[in-house]
């Protein structure tokens, strides 16, 4: 059962991506001493320049805790819908604030442990109330034990050496394939959606002026037969926002059951079959060429230009997953961000979820609410978004049968949540 723990003094966070850094910055700003363990050995990490959306909680977080003064996103980008050859099907008032994983990572690192980067050449000085902050790159968590209010985390470095660290609180911010979750023996409902996302970015200056203008200042959703695109402008990792220097990020949801064909897509240029993502630069060019040859003739020339000019796209199986519990060991171990719940990305809410978890946990540490209440609300919100995202994906990629099933499940859950039965 979750227990309210008060503000923790020593914290270890497993996972140094967006969720780990939101929580790390928050806790450090409130005086905790924080160590982040991140398995990736690179300090300046690459995001393949791919894009993320920033919602109200992430904006609130940055307004309160970001001292860099650096522009974090392209604000208020409107959404246009395109249907097959009709590029101007509908302009909507739906807006999103858009950025890249790499830029947000650099801003959060500058605040957390003063990392200098092209995006943040002069990191801010610590605030007087700050605790200590340490980002240990190339450290993979491998073990976790709890005894009498103290959590011990075992980790292994790049040199293969094992070490241990203790804390009052450990946050598992280690994503969809969370090691912390596995070490807690937490069962997870994880499922392949039946489709993949092909993704890529291209500098707007490399597109023809007409195509660049079409994509440069809006999010475009382009719908085709059981596949659809989401395209939007983002800053590169360096944080440049000047027109002509930004990137157009595209995501193309493509229907593909578990099959020999999917195995081929996931097999890289070295013959290695990836379980989830084939990173940029490793996709077998023959597979990509064949895919384009089969599909480009049915696309509008404007979308086709994006694909044909993109170098090094990458591909990911779209999964979702959710845990039944977020808190363990009397509240001394907590799962946050994608480790607790990963959505299909249709509503672009993963970063928002991470910020929401962090701000709401702050209220627990301030004594305004309990950890039980935090956990309940986090799981209800995640379930709503997870089921809504499934409905969206099923409707546009998988077909009517799955759409009605997903919509029904979503509706039933919303009613149960409304009645307090969820
Ligand atoms: C390099 C990178 C680029 C991304 N780019 C995009 C993007 O462009 N668009 C988008 O929508 N989402 C992107 N994501 C995913 C996005 O960050 C998340 O969906 C969201 O922000 C919430 O993430 P998270 O921090 O909970 O989990 P994740 O972002 O998945 O981060 C988990 C982190 O934990 C680390 N980790 C895992 N296991 C261990 C272990 N045993 N020990 C130590 N560390 C461990 C991983 O290396 C990773 O850094 C990216 C993630 C990464 C890591």
UniProtKB/TrEMBL annotation:
Annotated 2,6-dihydroxypyridine 3-monooxygenase substrate binding domain residues: 192-320
Phylogenetic classification of the source organism: Eukaryota, Fungi, Dikarya, Ascomycota, Pezizomycotina
UniProt-listed InterPro entries: DHP_3-monooxygenase (IPR053212), DhpH_subs-bd (IPR054707), FAD/NAD-bd_sf (IPR036188)
Recorded superkingdom: Eukaryota
Gene3D superfamilies, sorted: 3.30.9.60, FAD/NAD(P)-binding domain
Species in which this protein is naturally found: Podospora australis
Protein's name according to its UniProt entry: 2,6-dihydroxypyridine 3-monooxygenase substrate binding domain-containing protein
UniProt cross-references to Pfam families, sorted A to Z: FAD_binding-like
């Amino acid at each position: 059962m979750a227990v309210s723990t008060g503000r923790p003094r020593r914290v270890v966070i497993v996972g140094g991506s967006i969720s780990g850094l939101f929580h790390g910055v928050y806790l450090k700003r409130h005086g905790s001493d924080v160590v982040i363990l991140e398995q990736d050995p690179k300090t300046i990490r690459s995001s393949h320049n791919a894009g993320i959306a920033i919602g109200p909680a992430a904006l609130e977080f940055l307004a309160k805790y970001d001292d860099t003064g650096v522009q974090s996103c392209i604000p208020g980008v409107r959404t246009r819908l395109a249907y097959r050859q009709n590029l101007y099907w509908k302009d909507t008032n739906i807006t999103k604030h858009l950025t890249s994983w790499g830029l947000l990572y650099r801003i959060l690192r500058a605040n957390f442990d003063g990392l200098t980067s092209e995006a943040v050449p002069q990191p801010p000085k610590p605030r007087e109330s700050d605790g200590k902050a340490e980002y240990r790159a190339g450290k993979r968590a491998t073990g976790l034990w709890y005894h009498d209010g103290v959590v011990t985390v075992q980790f292994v470095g790049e040199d293969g050496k094992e070490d241990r660290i203790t804390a009052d609180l450990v946050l598992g911010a280690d994503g969809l394939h969370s090691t912390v979750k596995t070490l807690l023996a937490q069962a997870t409902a994880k499922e392949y959606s039946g489709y993949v996302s092909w993704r890529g970015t291209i500098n707007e200056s490399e597109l023809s002026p007409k195509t660049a203008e079409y994509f440069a200042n809006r999010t475009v959703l382009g719908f085709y037969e059981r596949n659809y695109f989401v395209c939007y402008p983002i800053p590169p990792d360096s944080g440049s926002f000047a027109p002509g220097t930004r990137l157009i990020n595209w995501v193309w949801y493509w229907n593909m059951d578990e099959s020999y064909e999917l195995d081929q897509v996931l097999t890289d240029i070295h013959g290695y079959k990836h379980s989830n993502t084939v990173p940029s630069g490793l996709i077998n060019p023959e597979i990509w060429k064949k895919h384009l040859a089969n599909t480009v003739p049915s696309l509008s020339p404007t979308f086709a230009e994006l694909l044909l000019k993109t170098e090094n796209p990458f591909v990911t199986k779209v999964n979702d997953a959710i845990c039944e519990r977020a808190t363990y060991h009397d509240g001394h171990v907590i799962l946050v961000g994608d480790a607790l719940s990963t959505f299909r990305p249709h509503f672009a809410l993963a970063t928002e979820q991470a910020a929401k978890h962090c701000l709401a946990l702050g209220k627990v540490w301030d004594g305004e609410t309990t950890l039980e209440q935090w956990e309940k609300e986090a799981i209800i919100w995640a379930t709503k978004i997870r089921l809504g995202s499934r409905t969206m994906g099923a409707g546009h990629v998988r077909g009517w049968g799955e759409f009605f099933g997903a919509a029904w499940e979503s509706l039933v859950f919303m009613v149960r949540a409304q009645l307090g039965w969820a």
